[in-house]
Structures are given as C-alpha cells and as structure tokens.
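Q: what sequence does this backbone want?
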C-alpha cells in the first residue's frame, strides 16, 4: 500500500509540473496578443468578454451584489468632488451598481453600456428605487450625447485602461470631455502594474515591439498592454506615465491617487 501511495504521489507531482508548464506557456502566448492583434480586434474581444460575462445576468447576479453601493474609492470621489445635484454620465454602467448609488445621492444619472442584458437588469432594479436614472445602450467609443450638457463623467471600473493605445485613449477622452460643461469633472479609474506594490516593476518585453512592427499588427502597442481572459487592459507602469498622458489631453489634474487608482480631471471647453 505504501508503494502504491508513493507511485500515486509521484504521478501527481509530475502532472502538476506538466500542468504548470502549460499554464506558463499559455500565459506567455497570451502576452504576445496585444502586440499582434490590431486595435479593432482588441476592442471586439472586449465586447465579446462582456457579452459572455453578462449572459443570463438576470439570474446570475444576487440582490446583495446589486445593492452593494459604491466602492471605497467611488465613495471618496463622490463625497469630495461631486455635489448632490447635477447630471452624471456613468460609462460602463453594467448592471447599474454605481449608477443607482449615485442617483440615490440626488444626482441625475445616465448609465451607458453596450450590453443589453446588463442594462435590462439595471433598469429593472432601478424601478424599485426612487431614483432619477436612465440606462442607455451605446458604444462607449461613440456616445449619443449633446455637447456641454454634463456635470460629471464617471468612468466606471477600469474603463480608461480598456482603450488600446495611448493616442486612442487621449482622443477618446478629449471627445468625452466635449460633453462636459465648463468646469465639469471627469472621474477616472485606471489599472496599475500590480508589481508596483512589491517594488518589482514589470520588465519591458523585447519581443513585443518587433511583433508590433509586423504588417497588420498593433502599431500602437505599449509596454504594459495585456490581454487577460480575453479583455484588453493597459497597465500603467508609473505615475509619471499616467500624469503625462492626462496632461497631454489638455485636462487639468485636480487630484490623483496613484495607489487607490483614481483621478479627478477638470476640463475647460
């Protein structure tokens, strides 16, 4: 019996090593995709990711999740920088968590998302609460809004980091800000390199820039671009990188908390 248990244990160790090797290989191969895939394809994959995530949303989200309210950074932003009146547009509204919570503070909220099933659940949830909120299905790259009508833009989750390419993010953000009133604020969440907390910054891959130079590849690839579970994200590797990207858009940085991953930006039309 002891001999058999040793054989089984050894076999288990071997299979674990094999599994670990293939996991590392898969991770490495996925790391090549942001350099190889053009921006249009990266955007398409994001849409597919959320279509899968929100499929059967009406049954997969428990009431506790829908009633969770604002996350700590969102609560801090709302308390410090948002009045209890005015119009706020929430981009990437999903199932309505942030939109409903902000509307409960007295704001008029327009929640935008590309996914119908998520918005259907958000609308149904809002019906049972005394809030001024409307949910609209729209592509976050092409907003169906009038210029200079919005007091606050609320970029939910890590949406800013989900736009492939520095120039594309800046152009998108400038376009977003045309919908703000003079003196309006953009409240932005972003994604940072997790290794920053350990003091071990991400290494710049040498192969990726060469791959990005191939015909049909992503010519706008940046170190920090990644594809996780089919979802593109740009990982900001330093606060200086992030600040310079914001400043080049023409926005004024009112407040930036690198570690908490949010920024408050003012815009003058």
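A:
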């Amino acid at each position: 019996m002891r001999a058999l248990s040793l054989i089984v244990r050894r076999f288990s160790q071997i299979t674990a090593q094999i599994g670990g090797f293939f996991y590392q290989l898969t991770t490495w191969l996925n790391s090549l995709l942001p350099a190889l895939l053009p921006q249009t394809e990266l955007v398409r994959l994001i849409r597919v990711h959320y279509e899968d995530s929100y499929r059967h949303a009406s049954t997969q989200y428990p009431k506790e999740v829908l009633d969770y309210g604002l996350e700590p950074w969102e609560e801090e932003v709302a308390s410090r920088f948002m009045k209890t009146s005015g119009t706020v547009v929430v981009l990437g509204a999903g199932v309505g968590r942030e939109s409903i919570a902000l509307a409960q503070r007295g704001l008029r909220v327009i929640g935008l998302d590309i996914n119908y099933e998520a918005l259907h659940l958000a609308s149904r949830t809002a019906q049972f609460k005394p809030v001024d909120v409307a949910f609209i299905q729209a592509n976050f790259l092409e907003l169906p809004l009038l210029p200079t009508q919005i007091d606050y833009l609320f970029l939910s989750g890590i949406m800013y980091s989900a736009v492939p390419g520095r120039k594309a993010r800046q152009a998108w953000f400038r376009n977003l800000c045309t919908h703000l009133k003079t003196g309006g604020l953009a409240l932005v969440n972003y994604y940072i390199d997790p290794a920053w907390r350990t003091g071990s910054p991400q290494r710049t891959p040498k192969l990726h820039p060469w791959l990005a130079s191939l015909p049909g590849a992503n010519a706008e690839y940046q170190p920090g671009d990644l594809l996780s579970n089919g979802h593109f994200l740009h990982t900001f590797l330093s606060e200086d990188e992030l600040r310079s990207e914001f400043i080049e858009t023409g926005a004024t940085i009112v407040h930036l908390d690198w570690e908490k991953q949010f920024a408050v930006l003012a815009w003058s039309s």
